[in-house]
Amino acid sequence: MGLARSESLFAYPTDYEDDAAARAFEQTELLCLKRVSELELADLVGDVESMGREQRHAPLLSCRVLISPLLKRRFQPSRRSRSWKSSTARERRNTEDRERDDPSLEAVANRIVAQACRTARRQAAAQTDRASASFPADCPWTPAELLDPDFQPE
Length: 154
Known about the structure:
Layout: H1 20-32, H2 41-75, H3 83-101, H4 104-107, H5 109-128, H6 143-147
């Protein structure tokens, strides 16, 4: 976090509906300056809640992007492409980075994988013209397997 400044960087208060990012920075600055009476507490609470949701949502998205090509690779081996390698490698790195930054994510990894698999299953079905029921209802791989750069389902 930056050092507290005696003067605000913002010439006027930002309207939350107009620019949420600028508003968040403004509220952060007010916290740093210990100008608590000027905080918009309802907006600040909303910003913190939103950040928490995003911290949980981002790994879910990465997990979906990771599982879908792995399902397609396993259940449609005749149509394997090289593009799945780059997308799975990228999402494995993204997930590892997030777990390093937010160790609490590891504790909910099984739940994230289960939730992501439901959507990835529908995605894989749509992309392969196969019925959703032809893919497993539960993820056939553990979180550790999904993150293993050498893991390739057959």
